[in-house]
Write a structure and sequence with these properties.
about 325 residues; alpha/beta; Rossmann fold; 7-stranded mixed beta sheet; 11 helices; 9 strands; binds S-adenosylmethionine
Length: about 325
């Protein structure tokens, strides 16, 4: 009797897609293909050109698919994620960077690039940096920017340092620190051009449904404290009020139901003007932007736009 031929990569991926769909995974085909590419050691896999399954692939792939079936995050299994132009290492114990935060990073990158184009060397602080996606985006995309990244989690600080080393970029500073500490980065008070943050902001009664988030992202990264989840974001506002130079820009991510509360919290500090909400790529209100109030504005040339009037920042309050 002849032996049945070994299953092809394509057939194994089809089977894995069904397994992951049955387990409630939101993107079963994408994840099945990504796990096969990872097991094959390929950056990506095109099933039209799928290679024959090498020896041992079937067993290794089955193990990876089983981990994903049990709702371990894909990024933890493969050990990395893509954020803007970066491939970042991710690890259990540190928040997995999300695509929607790429838009938050874009606002900080744009502001830093605008200041660089004026011949300045902008100082950008990323509070609650996690794996370092926002800070490293500014650091790698805006040559000349000086970047400081802070997180209260030693694991996050170590991971940001690793990702910084792997990026091959300049001299970004990474600090362990608590944004609620009124002395955090006190030597930079009044000198920072951009404060950018994706802090924890989930209220205690809004436990995420997805096991990947609920069971694998650290609580420190998810829950912002207080009944509304906005205690840590309010600490970010206070730190930004202290750190920013007059006219400096604050950009902070929040949940889509927190836009009005975030604007009210920013207004309540009395430290900000041009307080507004910007949408993410799907049009949902997902980030607060505001400018540090300052002394009387510098006289402008006729026709010169006022500070903060550049497109995309502070001009789209819903
Ligand atoms: C939602 S995660 C975002 C991480 C990263 N900014 C990103 O977008 O991928 C929030 C981060 O805030 C950090 N964090 C929580 N409380 C903090 C605090 N009081 N001070 C500084 N960092 C804090 C957590 O450790 C976590 O890395």
């Amino acid at each position: 009797m002849t032996e049945a031929p070994a299953p092809t990569v394509r057939a194994l991926v089809e089977g894995a897609t069904r397994v992951l769909a049955d387990a409630g995974v939101g993107s079963p085909r994408h994840d099945a293909v990504a796990l096969a590419a990872y097991a094959l050691g390929l950056p990506r896999l095109d099933l039209v050109m799928a290679p024959p399954a090498p020896e041992g692939f079937t067993e290794e792939y089955a193990g990876l698919v089983d981990r994903r079936r049990r709702r371990e995050p894909l990024q933890h299994i493969v050990g990395s994620t893509v954020f803007r132009y970066l491939s970042l290492r991710v690890e259990p114990g540190v928040f997995v960077p999300r695509p929607e935060t790429e838009t938050v990073a874009q606002v900080a990158v744009d502001e830093a690039a605008r200041l660089t184009a004026e011949g300045r060397s902008p100082l950008v602080v990323d509070l609650c940096c996690g794996a370092g996606g926002i800070a490293l985006s500014v650091d790698t995309e805006v040559p000349g920017a000086r970047v400081v990244a802070v997180d209260a989690s030693p694991e996050a600080v170590a991971l940001t340092r690793h990702n910084h080393g792997a990026s091959g970029s300049g001299t970004m500073r990474v600090e362990l620190g608590d944004v609620r500490d009124p002395a955090l980065l006190a030597e930079l008070d009044g000198t920072v051009d951009v404060v950018v943050s994706n802090p924890p902001y989930i209220p205690p009664d809004a436990v995420p449904v997805d096991p990947e988030v609920r069971d694998h992202d650290p609580d420190l990264a998810l829950y912002g404290g207080g009944a509304d989840g906005l205690d840590v974001p309010r600490a970010v506002l206070a730190a930004a009020a202290r750190l920013l130079v007059p006219g400096g820009l604050l950009v902070m991510e929040h949940a889509e139901v927190q836009d009005a509360a975030s604007r009210a919290d920013a207004e309540a500090t009395g430290a900000f003007e041009a307080v507004a909400t910007l949408p993410d790529l799907t049009g949902r209100p997902r980030m607060l932007v505001a400018r540090r109030r300052g002394p009387a504005p510098v006289p402008r040339e006729p026709g010169e736009p006022p500070p903060g009037a550049q497109a995309g920042v502070g001009d789209s309050q819903p």
